C-alpha cells in the first residue's frame, strides 16, 4: 500500500477546490470554449494537464453552475487517469498486492 499512497494523493488532492489555485474563475465563455475543445481533443495529455483541466472545470461549475460539457470533460479525464493508474499498478507488479489489501479492507 505504501507504494500506491503517493499516487493516490497525487490523483485526489488536486481535485479539491483550494489546490493549484487559480486566483479567479475563467469567464463562462472561456469555460465553454475549453470544455468544447477538450471533449474533441484526441491527444493524450500528461496527467498534470488532465488534473488542471479538471480543476478548471470544477471552478467553472462552481462559478456558473453544472454544465454537461464540464461534466463530460471531468468524467473523461477521470476515466483516463484511472486507466493509467491501473496500468501503472500492473506494470509494476502490484496487482496482487493491491487485490489482497483491498480484500482485507485496506481502502
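^ Assign residues to that structure.
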Amino acid at each position: 500500500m505504501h507504494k500506491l499512497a503517493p499516487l493516490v494523493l497525487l490523483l485526489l488532492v488536486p481535485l479539491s477546490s483550494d489546490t493549484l489555485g487559480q486566483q479567479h474563475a475563467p469567464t463562462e465563455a472561456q469555460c465553454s470554449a475549453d470544455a468544447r475543445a477538450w471533449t474533441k481533443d484526441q491527444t493524450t495529455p500528461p496527467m498534470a494537464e488532465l488534473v488542471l483541466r479538471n480543476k478548471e472545470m470544477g471552478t467553472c461549475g462552481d462559478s456558473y453552475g453544472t454544465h454537461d460539457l464540464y461534466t463530460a470533460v471531468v468524467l473523461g479525464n477521470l476515466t483516463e487517469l484511472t486507466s493509467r493508474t491501473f496500468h501503472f499498478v500492473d506494470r509494476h507488479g502490484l496487482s496482487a498486492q493491491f487485490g489482497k489489501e483491498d480484500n482485507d479492507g485496506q481502502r
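The helical segments are 5-12, 28-40, 47-64, 68-91, 95-103.
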